[in-house]
Amino acid sequence: MGCVFMLCKDGSKKESMMKKIYAFESKCLGCGLCEVHCRTAHSKSKDIVKTHKRENIASAIVIEENLSSNTVSYFALQCRHCENPKCIKACISGAMYKDDSGIVLNNKEKCVGCLSCILVCPFGVIKKNDDGRSVSKCDLCVGSCEPFCVKNCPNEAIKFLDEDGARALI
Amino acid sequence: MKKYLIIGNSAAGVNAAVAIRTNDKTGDVKIISCEEFNSYGRPLISYYLNGKVKSENIYCHDEDFYRSMNLEVLLNTKAEKVDTIKKEVLVGLGERISRISYDKLLIATGSSPFIPYIKNLDFNLQKNVFTFLTYKDSVKLKEKITKNSRVVIAGAGLIGLKAAEGLFGQVASITVVDLDNRVMASVLDKSEADIIQAHIEQKFISFKLQTSICEVQGENNVSRVILSNGETLNCDILVVAVGVRPNVVLAKEAGIKTSKGMFVDEYMQTSVKDIYAAGDCVESLDLLTGESKVFALWPNASNQGGIAGLNMTGIKTRTPKTFAMNSISFFGLQLTSAGIINNSRSIDTFVDSTKNKLRKLNVLNDNLIGFVLINDNQRAGIYTSLINDKVGLSTLAYDITSKDIGFNVYSKQERTKKIWDYKGGY
Amino acid sequence: MSLNFNTPDFEVIRNENRCIQCKVCVRQCANTVHFYDEEDNVICADDTKCVNCHRCVTLCPTKALVIRKYPLEFRENSNWSGKVIKEIYKQSQTGGVLLSSMGNPEPFTVYWDKMLLNASQVTNPSIDPLREPMETKVMIGRKPEKLEFDSNGKLLTKMPPNIELKIPVMFAAMSYGAISRNAHESLARAAEELGIFYNTGEGGLSKDFYRYGENTIVQVASGRFGVHKKYLNAGAAIEIKIGQGAKPGIGGHLPGKKVGEDISATRMIPVGSDAISPAPHHDIYSIEDLRQLIFSLKETTDYKKPVFVKIAAVHNSAAIASGVVRAGADAVVVDGFRGGTGAAPTRVRNSVGIPIELALAAIDQRLREEKIRNYCSLIVAGSIRNSSDIVKAVALGADAVYIGSAAVIALGCHMCHSCSTGKCNWGIATQYPELVKRLNPDIMYKRLVNLISAWNHEIQELLGGMGINAIESLRGNRLMLRGVDLNEKELEILGIKYAGE
Amino acid sequence: MLKEGELKIPSGCAISGIIDKKGNKFNGEEIIKSIALMHDRSNGLGGGFAAYGIYPDYKDFYVFHIFYENSSIKTQTEDFIKKHFDVEKAEYIPTRPVPNIVNIPLMWRYFVRPRVQTCVSEKDFMDESEFTSRCVIKINTDYKGAYVFSSGKNMGTFKGVGYPEDIGEFFMLDTYEAHMWTAHGRFPTNTPGWWGGAHPFTILNWSVVHNGEISSYDANKRFVEMYGYKCTLKTDTEVIAYLFDMLVRKHNLPIKKAINVVSAPFWDDIEREKSEEIKNELRSIRAVYASALVNGPFSIILGYEKGMIALNDRIKLRSLVAAEKSTRTYVASEESAIRIICDNPEKVWSPRGGEPVIALLEGE
């Protein structure tokens, strides 16, 4: 799955140094390829066809469609890995936790599907799974050096950047 | 080296300890708990009861959590008395009584079940009478029940119904009794409550509403209960889950101003200097009504615990006002609600319900003040933040009643600002 | 008309084992060929609307789609081929002029492919571009006949304005309106990074692109769209468009629906109005009028910018080119009949104009015979497909080349020839914002830079192979070419020997 | 089978040149000795010499050295010459029999003075050198079998098929006294040499001996042909002579500028040039005279009335060495060819690519 996740050199974990996924609305085509590759990356088979035909995986991405006056615009939204996440505070089972590099992760075994996290996440990017006792959220494909949605976006509408890098591109 | 003492090892207590440790690497942090288990998720006890969660998974944190954070935990330790002058707490350690001194104290004792007066009810005498608040309750209950136990549950609130769900399939019959005219009266309006009730009744759990248990009968255990409407029910197991009361005895005796719960200022400090309080045992200001009341909510307890911890280490942090919010499931029916949800003329209510889904939004002068979602809970947090930020609905990109909620409800600038600047929050 | 004889041109074949109903093709096909059938949870395709632009094929994550020629066969008839019959069906259906896009697709000889390059073997060593300097820079513009120095060697002659191309390639004229804003931005940024130029085309120049002025050639066409003093001074050079290879003799037509806010402001025409550029410039009815326009443009830019004149390759291009040089043009641009276009009547595109190779050879030879070849630069276009075409063009006598179709292919064009519909699925020849967005300049300009840099390396390799280390030494160096599969007349016009001679 | 003259022959060979900048004259023995040393650099199918200052008594006359394949072409050519020139003297070029020199063409030289006023019908001004060069080109183009192989003043070339030392012996160069000599040994690769194909190549006073190949030949050729020259001798060296004649005589560029045209500095070097003025000049030269840039490996020795210039191509793909001793300057393909006729020269160097060795007569 690729190289180790990069921490900053001095081991400090300044939040803004942490890389996150930023979407650029002016570039997003709403094609949905990020969702296809997100499901595949988190599937057992890691094969696009098997993932979609046999496994039933919710993608960790929500594609927002915005209808302004004349044009339709889209952007892909996923967990913002907040510095001080409300979902972890609301989680009754300790399933929702933050690893030491700042990524908010969900431990499927501990989750009971109470959906308190969904109740408090202001971005609405945690999805209830069909099994009713677990949720799906973005884990930045931790362990691989670039999230699969970013790697496969045909128009580079989502990028994996630290905050300064992202602000430079607004 | 500062000495921090925390009474209570649940959401508020543990979050406070973590907040303290992240900001005071060297302080001595002690947590005392009258329970014998490490910090566990209280709402999980019903999942333990029906085997959905195994005992080793009930704990919030893994074994070495406390050691890695260098927090000292004293289980089975009950705080007897707080000496605010000497800044000491008398604790009962088994038979022995000892004193623990503190520089900063946090009382996070949570709440305990409220036992209404019921004739000949005597918890010490009768072995088949239970409350359902702690993991211990759940463990004792699980040991006691048999395939043909006939169970009567007093209280159709969250705890009562969760107890019912926990027992379901392991006992002969379950009857739930409640004074109110509907289940989950404190959370739901009649129309929604009836949906929940109908769904649960499909599991052959029967309800006795607008009545209460006034008497129990039986040699040493309870074998029959008498209801105020005259009915009598055979009963092998009686679970009393009519409500909870904040544990404020310790505080009252220490002279801390309390009403139902302890009064705290914006920085979670009680009326006595260097004593803080957080969680189910405090009064919080309701964002929507402005009243001061007790919120028995896990997210609120974690939040307030964290803030109290910060303030105890001198980092001035204000507590945000809060409001009721719940996310709970009964037999697969997913209920998510927040804010003011009962109908009233002044609030215009929008209800969109199909076969087994319901979406109810309460709007008052251009602000969303409450919602109830049944089996249609995707992205509920966006509604919650609309309530929390008191967003003017007219400023949004579309009318939230017109379609499923999405982050695209915010304008472009607002969206970008939220994505870039939002750091999460207290 | 109830009965429509038109049958689909292409057939969409979907491999059900691979299709995962992810609906990417449904969302991405601007011609609404693909649609999702909710009931059976399957995706179907309407072949009649497919223009074979490969958008769905490229984006399909499981490569489940193949587009093939529609298998319907007409009875074999070498005179009445399927294509000719279907054209009659269309015209008898609509009564309209057949419109088509891109360059002449007819199977005329591509002379580039009939010429071979030389390489040195023993007597002179080939030059290794990795170790020795290899110069592909050219100076485009007017040149004095000779340089004068005073007694102690100081240069007296004042050079007329020339523009410098690091690589003898420029991006051809494609107007803002025919192609999208993002396409223009990609061309501009690539030109800037490569140290070459892009042509604005006859649609004027948007204010935001003035900052690429140093790498821009502003075009003045018969419609004068967006032509004003600031515009003329914004670019590094000016090009008067007399003709276009794909449609010699006729003007241009940008349908009104493509003229949105920005284009109407840039072209200075009302929103939604059809932008029709007339066939002749209404102030150029003779060669002396052209001279007047050239010098009025020079006056406006006080002689700081070279002025090119672009003509289509037609039968007497040689004489026209000579006239243009004598009229004071700094460079003659000749556009061959395979040059691309956004929209042109099919009949004109398929049967008017001559191949660029022959026009170039004739013009270069005529200008030399008239001893004026060295006065100005000669640029060719329509069409250059790869770096060996460029080397052959320079050997025949060109100073530099324009590339249009090759550039848009690098930007994602799949030559589906339906730019005139304005619904280009790749965001190039379209003004619909949601389609334009598909061409992300941040990515696409790099593709152009990659293409031209690659070509530059290839040119250097080819030059080195011939023992030449400066592209000027290849200009007009026809001994470096040999012809194959060409008749005497063609060899004579091209001025090259047959292979083996 | 095309006679060797009709097709372009690549040439690798030996070159050598000596000049006495004071103008003191010396006979051909030294130059023969120098070129003979490089015997193996040529294959005996071509050799030739240019000598400056050999006709002091007729120094104002143009001297035509002409080959004739047969007497009939000789008479036709002589009629043409008589119509356009006053012939002061006409004689065959004296030679002595040498075993290796065979099938010798008729060789005549004519001391002439152009009749510009009578012959020039057109109104445009034409000076005598332009008139003479046009006549020479006309003979070489239209009079099949007649080749004017030198047409300068007080100079002449002696060339033919054979090793250069035999040619030198054959033309009795020991009997001539010149202040400047250049020599060339040829190595044509595919067909037997022909007398007209040997170096040096001339136009008026210009003479060029060239070792190398011009990859840009057709570009240079089609450029000079725009200015009235005609490349008839089908050897690429010819075009260098015409280039210099055009640049220096017709466009009267100073010799240094002409060198910057023929062996132009690289664009990168131009950009690095500090002074804006020089940078602008070099950019203008490369822009205007792009087609006059001679590309491909070469080392040439250029003779003309003012002196001698040796030059390498820009990346020095051919050998060239220079040396100086008192009033003499020597250049040659090999250092040994210099040292054999000049023991311990004061200065020996190998000029860099594109860097000329300019040895002019005093006062020039």
Q: What does this entry show, briefly?
A:
Chain A is an alpha+beta fold.
Tell me about this structure.
The complex is a heterotetramer of chains A (170), B (426), C (501) and D (364). Chain A is of the alpha+beta class. Chain A has 2 domains: 1-78 and 140-170, Alpha-Beta Plaits, CATH 3.30.70; 84-137, Alpha-Beta Plaits (2-Layer Sandwich), CATH 3.30.70.20. Chain A has 6 helices and 8 strands, in the order βααββαββαββαβα. In chain A, the strands form 4 sheets. In chain A, strands 1-8 form a two-stranded antiparallel ribbon. In chain A, strand 4 and strand 5 form a beta hairpin. Chain A is globular. The longest helix of chain B has 15 residues, at 298-312. Chain B has 3 domains: 3-43 and 59-112 and 245-312, FAD/NAD(P)-binding domain, CATH 3.50.50.60; 115-242, FAD/NAD(P)-binding domain, CATH 3.50.50.60; 332-421, FAD/NAD-linked reductase, C-terminal dimerisation domain (Enolase-like, domain 1), CATH 3.30.390.30. Chain B contains 10 helices and 25 strands. In chain B, 46% of the residues are buried. By secondary structure, chain B is of the alpha/beta class. Chain B is globular, with a radius of gyration of 23 Å. Chain C is an alpha/beta fold and 501 residues long. Chain C folds into 2 domains: 10-74, Alpha-Beta Plaits; 138-498, Aldolase class I (TIM Barrel). In chain C, helix 11 links the parallel strand 18 and strand 19 (400-403). In chain C, helix 8 (317-326) packs across helix 10 and helix 11 crosses helix 14 (441-465). In chain D, helix 1 packs antiparallel against helix 5. Chain D has one domain: Aminohydrolase, N-terminal nucleophile (Ntn) domain (Glutamine Phosphoribosylpyrophosphate, subunit 1, domain 1, 4-Layer Sandwich). Chain D is 28% helix and 27% strand. Mean pLDDT of chain D is 89; it is low at 1-7. The longest helix of chain D has 15 residues, at 128-142. The termini of chain D are far apart. Chain D is globular and about 60 Å long. Chains A and B meet through strand 2, helix 3, helix 4, strand 6 and helix 6 of A and helix 8, strand 21, strand 22, helix 9 and helix 10 of B.
Instruction: From the 3D structure, determine the CATH topology of the largest domain in chain A.
Output: Alpha-Beta Plaits
DSSP, total strands of chain A: 8
Class from helix and strand fractions of chain B = alpha/beta
Q: What does the largest sheet of chain B look like? A: 5 strands, parallel
What is the fold-level CATH name, i.e. the topology of the largest domain in chain B? FAD/NAD(P)-binding domain
**Sheet with most strands of chain A:** 2 strands, antiparallel
**What is the count of distinct domains of chain A?**
2
Overall pLDDT score of chain A: 86
Helix content of chain A: 10-25%
Q: Quaternary status of these chains?
A: heterotetramer
C-alpha Rg of chain B (nearest Å): 23 Å
Q: Which strand-content bin applies to the residues of chain B?
A: 25-35%
Q: Gap between N and C termini of chain A, in Å?
A: 30 Å
Q: How helix-rich are the residues of chain B, as a percent range? A: 10-25%
Low-confidence stretches of chain A: 1-13
Mean pLDDT of chain B: 91
Name of the CATH architecture of the largest domain in chain B: 3-Layer(bba) Sandwich
CATH class of the largest domain in chain A: Alpha Beta
Give a count of the beta strands of chain B, DSSP E runs of length 2 or more.
25
Tell me the radius of gyration of chain A.
Answer: 16 Å
The H-and-E topology of chain A, N to C, reads as: EHHEEHEEHEEHEH
